[in-house]
Amino acid sequence: MSRGFGSAHGAISVLNAIATGIGGAVGIELPIHTEIRLREEHVVTARSTVKGCRVPVDAGVLEAVLRTVEKRLGYRGGFHAEISSDIPVAAGLKSSHALVNSLLAGILDALGLQLNIEELALLGVEASMMAGLTITGAYDDSLATLGRGVYITDNAERRVLRHYRIDRGLYAVVLVPPTAKPIWKVDPSDFQRLSECYMGAAKLALKGNWAAAMTMNGLLTATATGQDVAPLREALELPGVVSAGVSGKGPAFFAVTDDPEPVERLWSGLRGELIVARILG
Predict the structure, then answer these.
(1) pTM for the full model?
(2) CATH assignment at residue 217
(3) For residues 184 and 222, what is the distance between their CA atoms, to the nearest angstrom?
(4) Could you tell me the residue range of the domain that residue 246 belongs to?
(5) What is the rounded CA–CA span in Å between residue 173 and residue 175?
(6) Are 63 and 107 part of one and the same domain?
(7) Backbone angle region of 250, left / alpha / beta, with phi > 0 → left and psi within -120 to 50 → alpha
(8) Hey, is 118 helix, strand or coil?
(9) Final residue of a domain: which of 164, 191, 206?
(10) Residues 108 and 211 in one domain
(11) Which of the four, 78, 151, 202, 205, has the lowest number of CB atoms within 10 Å?
């Protein structure tokens, strides 16, 4: 049967959409690569490694991807996927959206089909919603794992409100703490009670001030999830740091800077994994 290849990358949050429906994200250079082999049997299987370690793939995600391509593309077979990823899972770095989109891109490639980024991202939203991976649909996250630059979206209407490129070389220094709260344990009301403040961050992002929006969003999300804001506040005092925030619902937090080393030194004593990745502006 046919073989195809798909790829995507991680991303960090500019706006959390739970409170307002307006989301924002930008990609970072943490890739995921998927090789797809189509099969005649209506069966899906996968083998996955994350940073060289074997990690199981949720069967519900594979089934949701297959059901989406059946519904939208009329494909009636199955597939096997070989997946290699550098994106930590369950950290807020959009690993689920990147996985779904790399699977879809590989299937499309195997079928000899092409979609633009917006069309592929919408397929990814549909599959992610079906698999229960997202509360809001997260069109912004889906786009950011495929494209470059900052995406601000209306997630209810699946509409891009702003897309702009970042014309300077920046890095994200990310700290992934050793614990994470699964999506089904996140209480949306913790975010919604701060909706007016989140809307203030959204207005900044829509005006093009993504860095200030990212910082405001991060402080709000840390408050909503009970995370310590001290590492963000301390990072913001360093030269070269333009923003700091919390990605997704956490637990990963990050600083955006043109010089990663001072942030790495600052956070080196904290528990968790430090990652430096280029912003895909």
Answers:
(1) 0.95
(2) 3.30.70.890
(3) 18
(4) 171-278
(5) 7
(6) yes
(7) left
(8) helix
(9) 164
(10) no
(11) 78
Domain count, the chain: 2
CATH of the domain at 140: 3.30.230.10
Give residue 159's identity as a one-letter amino acid code. R
258 and 218 part of one domain: yes
* Residue where one domain finishes, among candidates 140, 164, 188: 164
Q: Within this chain, do residues 274 and 242 fall inside the same structural domain, yes or no? A: yes
Contact in structure between 71 and 130 (CB atoms under 8 Å): no
Instruction: Please report, as a single letter, which amino acid is at residue 263.
Output: V
CA distances from 117 to 54, 142, 153, 160, 248 (A): 29, 9, 14, 12, 21
Tens-place pLDDT, residues 172-187: 999 998 865 555 456 7
Contact 155/140 with Cβ under 8 angstroms? yes
Pairing of strands 78-85, 253-257: unpaired
- Judging by DSSP bridges, how do beta strands 78-85 and 150-154 pair with one another? unpaired
Closest CA to 247 of 21, 8, 23: 23
Residue-wise pLDDT for 130-170, tens only, equals: 998 887 789 999 999 999 999 999 999 999 999 999 988 99
CA pair distance 136, 155, nearest whole angstrom: 6
Tell me: do 136 and 7 sit in the same domain: yes
Neighbours of 195 (CB within 10 A): 15
Smallest Cα–Cα separation from 88: which of 46, 121, 55?
Answer: 55
